[in-house]
Design a protein that fits this description.
It is globular and about 65 Å long. The strands form two sheets. Strands 1, 2, 3, 4, 7, 8 and 9 form a seven-stranded mixed beta sheet that branches. Strands 5-6 form a two-stranded parallel ribbon. Helix content is about 40%, strand content about 20%. It is of the alpha/beta class. Mean pLDDT is about 90; it is low at about 1-20.
Length: about 325
Amino acid sequence: MKLLRYVFLTLLVLGMGPATAAWPDDKPIKFIIPFGPGGFDAYARTLAPALEKILGAVVVPENVPGAGGRIGANTVYRARPDGYTIGLWSMPGMTMPAIVGERVRYDLNKLSWIAQLSYDAYALAVKADSPIRTLEELCNLGRPATFSGQGGFTETASIATVIMMAELGCPYKIVTGYQSSGQATLAVMRGDVDARVNPLGSLMPYIKSGDVRLLLTFERETSVPDVPTIAELGHADYVNFGLARVVAGPPGLPDDIRDRLSGAFAEAMQSEKLLEWSQKTNNPFAPLDSQQTVSAMQEMMRFYENYGELLRTEFKGKR
């Protein structure tokens, strides 16, 4: 009897799984950032100290840039689902390679979505002294309107540009290769290109400094006085254009670990210190828990998949 009881207890302990029993233990939690320094980097490095206090574990932000974020994404996707590797995901940018027919090594439908950190609506900007005053004028230059693109054609902002301009029948050209969002905006300020679609929060410092001017925002109700929204111009579907910064772990992350991580992110984003940082730096928070993030990501992927044929046609021969 004693032997049977010992075997039973041993099997029970083994059945609990090593990841859930003592997580987090003395191992550091890697927080993968799939890009170099910038907006994503700032969110991760600001949140990491708060997460450490809440979870009682060391959180190590690690930049793993390359291939438009895919190297970092693959690092998270292939990691052991034990809660010690999580990462930031740029959405809908990470959906685009598969939608336009490129091979990827991750499946967004299998990821363990943990939390949404932010959602930043896009805006369309031109140089402050540009003669272009409206979207209609941008569409009727007598030549293709030029846009600056960070990285390649499947950058999230470039996707929004392509859908908007192609759907409206406006001739356009995306000039790619800029290494950061800041460089792409600088191209607008220098007059190298006509316009740039970018997250509104990223554009605000340049708007306040008088270097760029907004033609419109991709919002239902404008947050910038005297600037029309895309909905007011009769294209309400385009309010879906924006940048979500989302945290996810590899497939198969245990529910209890995912819930603890989700709760830790929510608590951190509600702290007075981080709310002050958010306001001072124009890095807005838009918190969603794990289940809400699952729903939001599924809805976002469905929206962009509706434009799959258009995007494959527009990107054919450009990649």
